[in-house]
Amino acid sequence: MHPIRQHARVLTASLTGTAVEFYDFYIYATAAALVFGPLFFPAESQAAQTLFAFMSFGLAFFARPVGAIVFGHYGDRIGRKSTLVASLMLMGVSTLLIAFLPTYAMVGWVAPLLLCILRFGQGFGLGGEWGGASLLAVENAPKGWEARFGSAPQFGAPVGFLAANGLFLILGLTLSDADFKAWGWRIPFLASAVLVGLGLWVRLRIAETPAFREALAHKAPPAVPVAVLLSHHFGAVLAGTAGAIACFAIFYLSTAYALAQGTTTLGYSRETFLAVQLGANCFFALGILIAVIRADRTSPRQVMLTGAVMTIALGMVFGAGLTSGSLLTIFVTLSAALVVMGFVYGPLGSWLPTLFPVTVRYSGISLAFNVGGIVGGALTPIGAQMLAEAGQGSNAGLLLSLAGLATLIGVLVARVRTS
Fold first, then answer.
1. Domains of the chain, earliest start first
2. b or e along 265-284 (b: 16 or more beta carbons within 10 Å of the residue's beta carbon)?
3. What is the pTM of this model?
């Protein structure tokens, strides 16, 4: 196959699959912010229902490291391609089944139990997705293009967010509130089946990465990759975990948490706030593009350090911007936040692989990325929601500063491998 066609197929497979995964993940985040509280959780107050919904959302982040270990095991032993197909199928099935769930009014406590089980399945599948997609791109990259190739799965995030956010906006504009809460929220989960089918079709047409084939030719893979990883590369896992925290914190405070606050405490309509977020999403892609071009010209480490410092500064103004009472200020705040996220997320796919040898690389970057997601993606929105309930919503941005500090330390102490 011609190199250009081969590279195009690899990048498409890396981006498409990750876009599907983030679409699946984000439609849950959006539904949790808009409807899951009253539909699946009994509570005396709307704020408490939203908090329970975010807790169910956070459950997937605890499933992700488990998925990272399981899928990382097979990704380091049998290859990137087969593992990526399996992770996509698991998350796709879990997402599709959410569309058919009964609500609390129908079956009582069984409804939130089933929701949490499927949410765990989503997280388990995503635990093996991002790491494999990044390696698929980076390990096929021409010399000097590692960050740009490694950004393919990163661009899947704004694409998936755009599809999910756009579909919810269309539904909001075409359905009444009653119809949306009764059955309209199920449509995005049903639509995921089409996207998953597309992702599988692309991934089944790619070959294994050259780096993995070469490593396999020289030495048999470790019997238990995660054991080798934790016994010989534990410091790299910790540094990589810290390095991943900021991107999760920015994304979920700027999307799920901001949407919940905007449509409840701040009093904006669902359609208005979704439109604001849709526009801000364009700056997310721009931030990634600028960051990865810069990373290939300098280094992923340098761009990550810049992004971490920017995240610390962002946290100082994020809460005040979100609660300003001005839609324009909110739009600027969210747009700026997603540009900054591009600097800590865009180069991540090319930075993390430099911390681990090929034989445990799938396990290493998957575990680091997904443990970082627990802190940044699960605990941060819950903490922000608790601050908002206590009347301290303007201070929620300080959580971003802490996340930026964690990433700064992680990138500073990480030792980049030369081979």
1. 3-206+223-413 (1.20.1250.20)
2. bbebebeebbbbbeebbebb
3. 0.83
